[in-house]
Amino acid sequence: MDSQSKKKNILKNIIFCLLMCLVGLAVSLSVKEVYRQKYEKSNEEQIKLVEYRGKIDELNEKIAFLESAIEKNKEAYFAQVTSLANVDSSFYNLLSQYHNNIDSAKEIAGLTEMQGEGITVEIKDSAESEDVYSGKLVVHDSTLMELVNDLRTAGAKAISINGERIIATTEFICVGPAVKVNGTKLFSPFVVKAIGNSESLTEAVKNGSVYANQAVSLSVKIQTESKLTIEGYNKPYKNSIELMRDYKGE
Amino acid sequence: MKNEESIEKKAQNKKRITTALLTAACLILGFIIALQFKSITESDKSNNQTTTLSDYQAQIIALSDKVELLESENKDLEKKLSLIESGTNEEQIAKLESELSEIKRFAGLTRVVGEGVHITVKFADEDKIQTAAAAIQMLINEIKAANAEAIAINGERLTAMSEVRVVNNYLVVNGKTYTQPIDISVIGKQSSVNSTLEMPGGIVSILEKKYDANITWEDVSEINIPAYVVNN
């Protein structure tokens, strides 16, 4: 009787063990299923990622090709222009005049890279996390707009923010955590570069609205630069002159 | 004797079964933990991937823009090159002339006409213009965001370096002072400019409610915008 009850006990244990095994299996299977779904999803992303990377490589190759073609064509063109100097000097002068005018118009438009003395201003969203919705801790479209306006007032010759050259029709619009500038979303930290007299530019920033209004809690760092390079407007300007024509009246 | 042996054996058996059970349970537990851990790290990874995906998308857009820009520059150069090689002098000048006029138009250096909107802002209280300076700047900014191609304020063409500010109740644009009303001429898609101005709770209603400004606007099919005069 005693040994039988012990046998029964062992049997019970074995059944219990099997049951637990089953439960364990079921749990692991369901976990596996979740994992599989996630894996499939990430697999899809993986494919997209590879596709995007390929596209980026392709575009970079195209850019390199175009840049070298432009370099070559430029050289060839100006070699032809120079050779005109002795053959037809009056026409050569006329061409040169056009080239100079085009260059200076491009400079005013912001289409060319510019170098010179200036300052960089780095503005970062505040590190504090409280009071996010008071709006005082993040860089707004108005923060950048007012800063650019202050720099223009102080006589800046060229301004860019995170590589976006500020031109006549540049807008500043908040889009979630980003600020859209020239249609491109920019994120904090915002590095504003300005070419001009560094003293008056620095003063303009210090007396300007970035410090005065909301931005007391933002991190603002001003740095004087003896030689600053500001890149030209990097989008096709022809899209921005579609509706206007030269005025042909008196 | 036999009985004693069998009891000992039974005890040993029991011990073995318990150990086996424990081992199995531990194994299964370990397996589950490993799987769960793996799937958690995997989901972390895929979260990271979504950020790189949108990064890549932004990069692709920027690079495509650059390709478009370089392509048009290269096409221009090729045209100029073929003209200098086999074109007439007149054709070359015509090409340069059109390039120059396009860039001047874009820079704000020529008087231009086109479809647009004319906007007038008048403050009931003249002193209010001083406090409204930032709102006036924001109005101009919103108009730019509506894809405006050219803007003039009281006849001052806005260029890349034009400031708009208020000093002693005077509006200052391109270093020149003006009194109100503020007169804004815009070349741009009328529908976009209108919807910007009409936006409920937008900058126009802020100027009206907070600064007691009267803002009117009308579409103009051929609005005339002067050139920026380069100061010496």
Question: Your description of this structure?
Answer:
The complex is a heterodimer of chains A (250) and B (232). Chain A has 250 residues and is α+β, with helices and mostly antiparallel strands. Chain A has 2 domains: 1-109; 115-230, Alpha-Beta Plaits, CATH 3.30.70. Chain A has 5 helices and 9 strands. Chain A has helices at 2-87, 89-109, 141-153, 198-207, 209-212, and strands spanning 114-124, 158-161, 164-165, 172-175, 178-181, 184-186, 190-195, 219-230, 245-246. In chain A, the strands form 2 sheets. A 5-stranded antiparallel beta sheet of chain A has the order 3-2-7-1-8, with helices on one face. A 3-stranded antiparallel beta sheet of chain A has the order 4-5-6, covered by helices on one side. In chain A, α1 runs antiparallel to α2 (89-109). The longest helix of chain A has 86 residues, at 2-87. The N and C termini of chain A lie far apart (124 Å). Chain B contains 6 helices and 8 strands; from the N terminus they run ααβααββββββααβ. Chain B has helices at residues 2-86, 89-107, 128-131, 133-145, 190-198, 203-211, and strands at 112-123, 150-153, 156-157, 164-167, 170-173, 176-178, 182-187, 213-225. In chain B, β2 (150-153) and β3 form a beta hairpin. In chain B, α1 (2-86) crosses α2 and α4 (133-145) runs antiparallel to α6 (203-211). At the A-B interface, α1, α2, α3 and β9 of A face α1, α2, β1 and α4 of B.
